[in-house]
Amino acid sequence: MDLRLERTEQAGCLGTPTPHLGWRHAAGTGPQDGYEVELVRGSAGPATVAVTGAGGAEQVAVAWPHEPLAAGEVGSVRVRTSHGDGGWSPWSEPLTFHVAPLAPEDWVARFISPRHLAGLDDPAPVLAGTVTVGPGLVGARLLLSALGVVRARINGTRVGADELTPGWTSYHKRLRFHGYDVTDLLREGSNDIDALLGNGWYRGALTWDLRRDLYGDRLALLAQVELRYADGRVETVGTDGSWRAHSSHVLSDDLYGGQHTDLRLQGVHGAADEVDELDVDPRILVAPEGPPVRITKVVPAVDIVHSPTGKQIVDFGQNLVGWVNLTVRGHAAGDRITVRHAEVLEHGELGTRPLRKAEATDTYDLAGPEETELAPQLTFHGFRYAEVTGVDELRLEDVSAAVVGSELTRTGWFTCSEPMLEQLHENVVWGTRGNFLDVPTDCPQRDERLGWTGDIQVFARTAAFLFDVDGFLSSWLRDLAADQRPDGGVPVVVPDVLRDDNVIATAWGDAATMVPWVLYRRYGDLDLLRRQLPSMRAWVDRLWAEADDSALWRTGFQYGDWLDPTAPPEDAAAAQADPHVIQQAYLVRSTEMLAWSARALGQGALAEEYEDLADTARAAFQNAYVAPDGRVTSDCQTVYALALCWALLGSGEQVEGAGERLATLVREADATVATGFVGTPLILDALVIAGHPELAYAMLLQTQNPSWLYPVTMGATTIWERWDSMLPDGSINSGEMTSFNHYALGAVANFLHRRVAGLVAIAPGYREVEVDPLTEGPLTHAGARHLSPYGEIAVSWEKQPDGVVRLDVSVPPGVLARVYPPGVKRGSVKVGAGEHTFSG
């Protein structure tokens, strides 16, 4: 039995006294009718054990059944379940936890900053102090945060494996800390602690203007050590004015620019500097909800080529995010090695133009001829290729790439009979990995890397199938609410570093309503929905404040159907779709999502209020933008996709007319895609709704530009920002918005999971699913697997030589599946846990 505690399977830094529980049963387990939760509490001294139980089948987002935990408390929890016959399952493996500080008074450490060192253009500082440990230590915990990013060591050994700690949040309102068990790193007596600080998102360059110190001009460290002794004593010590600062061998560091390291200075710190205690309000400190940023994979180099100008370029075979690991030897002290990064080659040379102002360059001044492992510590890059200078002849075995990102658990897979579709899906997976680095960014390589709300709004459903993003996006939504304007407006990037109070952008700000709803549907967590409801309502009320007397919203600048393929390279917002049509469609959708959320939370009166408003907005859409025959204003693929998928049309004649008009437009376009960010997630579903699944397959399998498979034919290993980020002749699109790792258009993977494979969640948390694949098409087999909160659900279908379709469905305990067997006209059967096969 797999146990989860507050959205994680590793509750090393628990930020609530009453965490939720969840568990997955082993295959073959019968229906659950009760459970018991054992809590072992042992913060110091003898442990205490308590067991509570309840009846019922509840196993997802289960409320904490014990007394609230206390700050600093450590312990473990495990679960067992009963199954009708009176017997009990074995106990789950215990999940250990440590409760983080829960109130300002739980902090004794102070933020400390070098008094004279560590200016904006100075080397990265190291802050150092000592901790004295007495006899009888049984446990120790380090709580770590920074204004900037931090790597800590105790007695020369690195603490943990996290990168770029504490990550990126809305720092002035929410500053994350992380917790580490450091018992094995401490010894009786004096212990040295040091921490290297980098600029990170706090003080480094951000946005295309390369704005620095957006949050503050001083780096700072917060470190608190909790020491637990056998006699029950708990001693807490932390950073204070007794610490000292030194300059490090990292001469400069920046997320966009890269890192310059002088290895001759390693271990040589120069004169010590005093530190100042900064007045940082401890109320902004928060425990992590999602997984930390770590090295999740190491990719070996696959080739080393020489460019037409003689440069050595390493190809890793995969566009990824992280840094280059390089082994060198035999160099003189002072020799410099430079590593430049890019996602593509252009005519054989490193294609750096899409990086814009981001230099993406790491340099190393070597200390001598000894074999040395080179890797940066305080930056990251998006790249497939790396140009290395300063090494005469590189060897493949001396080069690898560390893949860096939030350590998300993979939960979704897709297979089919078309290799290019499988590659497309793999590209979506890699795009998610690269851009889910503490916040859901638009791209990981150029002078941007921001949490654009529109990108995650269109991609959230896909992301939640592929990876466990519950804690990751839950944390980001807290930042969205923290940065939300007093009038309810939502910034177009979160954390908000653009600080533009005037943009109320449809499809971008709607992340406030749509992402919480996705997480509730995927993970069944009503508490998250309850927490976000005020933010959701504030956004919807802001939109209605913009509506005119006819209930139409037509004000303000809009990004519209961003990067419509017909838009010229210099104007990404120049789309075929009328932006007012898009605004009104989203007004309906966000209003009804708010109503659905209120209904799920048992707030009937509030739900009715917004249901009425949604109906009013829908009627206004029909009156203003829909002709009696179903024609929609601006007459393009995106507006019909919105109208059909979101039930914005009135009469049956309008629905039929809109569907046929969409089909005509797709045929006229030879089944190429004519949608941007807004229409792309919906266009294939709209064709199926219109009764034309054959056109959906034709568009899905199209290889001519613009299409999803055109980049695959060009060797793409991630999703591009533009349909034609690279032109057929191998040159890079001249548009400013040209990224080769931009997941938004990868929202099509949701169609692969739900429609092609046929796996659809129809109740929160996948408690009930529908299985209804699109088998009438050119594919001969397809399948999807998803590790849901209840366990793995698997669907696969295959056309037999005699034309019969075989459908296999695997259902975990706790899940009910409504299956539409092949060959049966719209008839369904319900099945429970087990392996099921259907033919027709």
Automatic annotation (TrEMBL):
It comes from the Bacteria. Residues 410-756 form the Alpha-L-rhamnosidase six-hairpin glycosidase domain. Keywords: Hydrolase. InterPro entries: 6-hairpin_glycosidase_sf, 6hp_glycosidase-like_sf, Alpha_rhamnosid, Bac_rhamnosid6H, Bac_rhamnosid_C, Bac_rhamnosid_N, Ig-like_fold, Rhamnosid_concanavalin. It holds the Pfam family Bac_rhamnosid_C. Residues 308-404 form the Alpha-L-rhamnosidase concanavalin-like domain. It is an enzyme of class 3 (hydrolase). One of its GO terms (molecular function) is hydrolase activity. The keyword Hydrolase applies. Residues 140-296 form the Bacterial alpha-L-rhamnosidase N-terminal domain. PANTHER family: ALPHA-RHAMNOSIDASE (EUROFUNG), ALPHA-RHAMNOSIDASE (EUROFUNG)-RELATED. This is alpha-L-rhamnosidase. It comes from Occultella gossypii.
